[in-house]
Design a protein that fits this description.
Layout: E1 2-5, H1 15-22, H2 28-36, E2 40-42, E3 45-47, E4 58-61, H3 65-69, E5 85-90, E6 94-99, H4 118-126, E7 132-133, E8 142-148, H5 151-163, E9 166-175, E10 182-185, E11 191-202, E12 207-211, E13 219-232, E14 240-248, H6 255-262, H7 276-279, E15 283-284, E16 287-288, E17 294-301, E18 316-318
């Protein structure tokens, strides 16, 4: 058991955030589990849900000292793997989760059963079998996901996406600098270039194909992008590499990856829609470039959001992309 006094720098912040700042070795799941088991007290009162705390509050944790210090997690001489996710926001209805690259969000056809799926990890760590994904990210795409804690919230999130009241933005690194598209103004008044096409899905191979003209069975796609900055590709390559911010208007399978590749600007590190001979020339922070350089970095709830998630109207959640390509540090 340990306790501490909330300082002025943590005034008004949520309890779990304050606890994790105080005890950086404590895992997010452990903190939420302690709340559910009422092993946390604020000013002597047991808590079972996250809540704001204020300067001068006394927080008491009924957890073993070695768990709080992280000594039980130390592994002498071996590198500890990165956590598969971080919870960056939580309330009684919704979680905002930052998924690590290389983590599969749920079991799909043909996926190895021994692989840890994000939704299963969350249900286990938070001891809540009711958790449901509101949308998906590819295995090799890191970044922000919404996870519902109540049955009606999944449909509420999907409805906001269809209405254009919940904006999803990504950042990525691509070969060359794209220029096609019509200039449009997004719902939050930001300028983007908008490109449209048609997408054919091949479930037997897990691939999609992009067409400029509609073919039987094709689905329309709309992708918006803007160039944030450019980098010299470096010897022995010619040309440049661009960092893009991308906004999905439609959210089809592999849309960003396939659409940008179709435009002639594949993602760095994308082995499916990219160019392997080009990817092999790129270097990552620890040797060869690891995976596609694409991250879901922003979720924007517009001020006009209504319904069960109206309390999030005007709220933005964002993270920085964790690119592996060493040139992105320039």
């Amino acid at each position: 058991m340990q306790d501490f006094i909330v300082d002025s720098g943590s005034d008004g912040k949520n309890l779990v955030r304050v606890i994790l700042t105080r005890y950086p070795h404590l895992k997010m799941g452990q903190a939420y589990k302690a709340l559910r088991k009422k092993d946390v007290r604020v000013n002597g009162v047991r808590c079972k849900t996250d809540q704001p705390v204020f300067s001068g509050d006394r927080v008491t944790l009924y957890l073993p000292d070695d768990v709080l210090s992280g000594s039980v997690a130390k592994d002498a001489g071996r590198e500890v793997a990165s956590p598969p996710y971080q919870i960056i926001y939580a309330d009684t209805k919704l979680l905002v989760v930052n998924k690590s690259t290389g983590v599969t969000v749920h079991q799909a056809g043909g996926r190895r059963k021994q692989e840890p799926f994000l939704i299963d990890l969350l249900r286990r760590d938070l001891e809540d079998e009711q958790l449901e994904l509101c949308h998906r990210l590819d295995r090799q795409t890191g970044g922000l996901l919404l996870v519902a804690r109540q049955a009606n919230i999944v449909q509420a999130v999907l409805r906001l996406m269809r209405q254009g009241l919940l904006l999803r933005r990504y950042r990525c690194l691509v070969r060359g600098t794209p220029i096609p598209g019509e200039t449009v103004r997004s719902a939050d008044d930001e300028l983007f270039r908008e490109v449209t096409a048609w997408l054919e899905k091949d479930p037997s191979r897990g691939n999609v194909y992009i067409h400029d003209e509609k073919q039987d069975g094709d689905l329309s796609i709309i992708t918006r992008y803007r160039v944030l900055r450019t980098f010299p590709a470096g010897d022995p390559m010619q040309g440049e590499i661009a960092e893009l911010e991308v906004e999905l208007v439609t959210g089809r399978t592999h849309q960003i990856r396939a659409h940008l590749a179709h435009l002639g600007h594949p993602l760095l590190g994308d082995g499916k829609y990219g160019r392997n001979h080009y990817n092999r020339l790129l270097k990552g922070k620890k040797g060869a470039l690891k995976g596609q350089q694409l991250f879901a970095t922003q979720l924007i709830f517009l001020p006009t959001v209504k319904g069960p998630l109206a309390y999030l109207a005007g709220r933005t959640f964002d993270i920085e992309p964790d690119y592996d390509w060493i040139g992105s540090d320039q």
